[in-house]
Amino acid sequence: MKLINKTQTTHKRQSLLPTVALMKGGAFRFNRLAVETFGLTPGTSVRFFQDEQRPKDWYVHFDEKEQPFSLTMRKSTSKDKECYVASRATATLIKQSIPGLDINKTYPIEIATEQTEGMFALLTSKLINA
Fold first, then answer.
1. Contact 70, 56 (CB under 8 A)
2. What's the CA angle centered on 69, arms 68 and 73, to 5 degrees?
3. CA nearest to 83, candidates 119, 40, 48, 113
4. How many Å apart are CA 62 and CA 65, to the nearest integer?
5. Structure confidence at residue 129 (pLDDT)
6. Is residue 36 helix, strand or coil?
């Protein structure tokens, strides 16, 4: 017999990671650590990109200036030091591209801290509490 301990005691808490919560209503809420890590402020331009060759792979791009086809970051009214953008259509596209996700649920997604071609990957393969 070969036993493997599967006890999940070292799971990283969402608050310790730069995370965007993909809300069931279509908003994207960036936690305090994401705001601090990426220097997000109200007015920051946010764009989401999908890899055509790997449809489950999504990226986020932040810019201080407004960009075409972008969303504008707002300060969260419910949580201090958090920001959000809203786009039900974009949220639905992301959820539909990942098998097994319910479009009526909220999913916290870790954000990579290193850039890939000027963008940050949404680590959809590491969905927290999926």
1. no
2. 95
3. 40
4. 9
5. 46
6. helix
- Per-residue pLDDT, 106: 92
pLDDT value of position 65: 83
What is the residue type of 64? E
Secondary structure, 3-state, 39-76: CCCCCCEEEEEECCCCCCCEEEEEECCCCCCCEECEEC
Average confidence (pLDDT) per 10 residues, the chain, 130 residues: 58 72 93 95 95 94 88 84 93 92 91 94 75
Other C-beta atoms lying within 10 Å of the C-beta of residue 74: 14
SS3 34: helix
Write out the two tokens for 5.
């301990």
Q: Cα(70)–Cα(48) distance, rounded to whole angstroms?
A: 8
d(CA 47, CA 102): 23
CA distances, 97 to each of 69, 101, 103, 106 (Å): 20, 9, 11, 15
Question: What whole-number distance in Å separates Cα of residue 105 and Cα of residue 24?
Answer: 5
Q: Alpha helix locations (H) across the chain?
A: 32-38, 88-97
pLDDT of residue 15: 61
